[in-house]
Protein backbone atom coordinates (compact mmCIF):
# COMPACT_ATOMS: atom_id res chain seq x y z
CA UNK A 1 0.00 0.00 0.00
CA UNK A 2 2.67 2.50 1.04
CA UNK A 3 4.95 1.24 -1.73
CA UNK A 4 2.37 1.85 -4.44
CA UNK A 5 1.60 5.33 -3.07
CA UNK A 6 5.30 6.17 -3.02
CA UNK A 7 5.67 4.82 -6.55
CA UNK A 8 2.80 7.02 -7.69
CA UNK A 9 4.33 10.10 -6.06
CA UNK A 10 7.70 9.42 -7.70
CA UNK A 11 6.09 9.02 -11.12
CA UNK A 12 4.01 12.19 -10.74
CA UNK A 13 7.02 14.26 -9.64
CA UNK A 14 9.07 13.08 -12.61
CA UNK A 15 6.18 13.68 -15.03
CA UNK A 16 5.63 17.21 -13.71
CA UNK A 17 9.34 17.95 -13.98
CA UNK A 18 9.37 16.69 -17.56
CA UNK A 19 6.35 18.83 -18.40
CA UNK A 20 8.07 21.87 -16.86
CA UNK A 21 11.10 21.30 -19.08
CA UNK A 22 8.86 20.95 -22.14
CA UNK A 23 7.01 24.15 -21.19
CA UNK A 24 10.31 25.96 -20.92
CA UNK A 25 11.33 24.74 -24.38
CA UNK A 26 8.05 25.99 -25.85
CA UNK A 27 8.47 29.32 -24.06
CA UNK A 28 11.90 29.68 -25.64
CA UNK A 29 10.33 29.33 -29.11
CA UNK A 30 7.64 31.96 -28.61
CA UNK A 31 9.83 35.07 -29.02
CA UNK A 32 10.88 33.79 -32.46
CA UNK A 33 7.18 33.75 -33.37
CA UNK A 34 6.81 37.36 -32.26
CA UNK A 35 5.22 36.62 -28.88
CA UNK A 36 6.55 38.76 -26.05
CA UNK A 37 7.30 36.84 -22.84
CA UNK A 38 7.49 38.71 -19.53
CA UNK A 39 10.43 37.11 -17.69
CA UNK A 40 9.24 38.66 -14.41
CA UNK A 41 5.82 37.00 -14.47
CA UNK A 42 5.57 34.82 -11.33
CA UNK A 43 4.67 31.70 -13.30
CA UNK A 44 7.58 32.15 -15.71
CA UNK A 45 9.98 32.82 -12.84
CA UNK A 46 8.74 29.70 -11.02
CA UNK A 47 9.24 27.64 -14.18
CA UNK A 48 12.80 28.90 -14.56
CA UNK A 49 13.56 28.34 -10.86
CA UNK A 50 12.27 24.78 -11.16
CA UNK A 51 14.15 23.86 -14.32
CA UNK A 52 17.40 25.83 -14.00
CA UNK A 53 18.98 23.49 -11.43
CA UNK A 54 18.42 20.61 -13.86
CA UNK A 55 19.29 22.32 -17.14
CA UNK A 56 22.19 24.59 -16.15
CA UNK A 57 24.76 21.85 -15.34
CA UNK A 58 23.81 19.89 -18.45
CA UNK A 59 23.95 23.01 -20.64
CA UNK A 60 27.73 23.22 -20.14
CA UNK A 61 28.17 19.92 -21.98
CA UNK A 62 25.15 19.82 -24.30
CA UNK A 63 25.42 23.15 -26.13
CA UNK A 64 26.94 23.10 -29.60
CA UNK A 65 27.18 26.50 -31.22
CA UNK A 66 23.73 28.04 -30.96
CA UNK A 67 22.00 24.71 -30.41
CA UNK A 68 21.11 23.84 -26.82
CA UNK A 69 20.42 20.14 -26.42
CA UNK A 70 20.21 20.29 -22.62
CA UNK A 71 16.40 19.77 -22.48
CA UNK A 72 16.70 16.58 -24.54
CA UNK A 73 19.54 15.28 -22.40
CA UNK A 74 17.68 16.26 -19.22
CA UNK A 75 14.51 14.45 -20.32
CA UNK A 76 16.52 11.31 -21.13
CA UNK A 77 18.36 11.45 -17.79
CA UNK A 78 15.13 12.06 -15.88
CA UNK A 79 13.57 9.01 -17.52
CA UNK A 80 16.58 6.84 -16.67
CA UNK A 81 16.57 8.00 -13.04
CA UNK A 82 12.80 7.47 -12.82
CA UNK A 83 13.12 3.93 -14.17
CA UNK A 84 15.95 3.04 -11.79
CA UNK A 85 14.11 4.53 -8.82
CA UNK A 86 10.90 2.74 -9.79
CA UNK A 87 12.76 -0.57 -10.07
CA UNK A 88 14.35 -0.08 -6.66
CA UNK A 89 11.02 0.81 -5.07
CA UNK A 90 9.21 -2.13 -6.66
CA UNK A 91 11.89 -4.64 -5.67
CA UNK A 92 12.15 -3.19 -2.15
CA UNK A 93 8.48 -3.55 -1.30
Could you explain the architecture of this structure?
- The chain is mainly alpha-helical and 93 residues long.
- It has one domain (2-92).
- Helix content is 74%, strand content 4%.
- It has three helices and two strands.
- A two-stranded antiparallel sheet has the order 1-2.
- A hairpin with a 2-residue loop joins strand 1 (63-64) and strand 2.
- Helix 1 crosses helix 2.
- The longest helix is centred in the N-terminal third of the chain and has 28 residues, at 2-29.
- The protein is elongated and about 50 Å long.
Class from helix and strand fractions: mainly alpha
Terminal Cα separation, in Å?
A: 9 Å
List how many beta strands DSSP finds: 2
Q: What is Rg?
A: 16 Å
Quaternary status = single chain
Helix content: over 70%
Spatial strand sequence of the major β-sheet? 1-2
Q: Mind describing the biggest β-sheet?
A: 2 strands, antiparallel
Quick structural overview:
The chain starts with a helix and ends with a helix. By secondary structure, it is mainly alpha-helical. The chain has three helices and two strands.
Topology, element by element:
Blueprint: H1 2-29, H2 42-59, E1 63-64, E2 67-68, H3 70-92
Antiparallel strand pairs: 1-2
Helix pairs in contact: 1-2, 1-3, 2-3
Throw out a few tags for this protein.
93 residues; mainly alpha; single chain
Amino acid sequence: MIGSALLTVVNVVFQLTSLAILARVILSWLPMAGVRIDPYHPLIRFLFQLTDPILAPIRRFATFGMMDFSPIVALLLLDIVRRVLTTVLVSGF
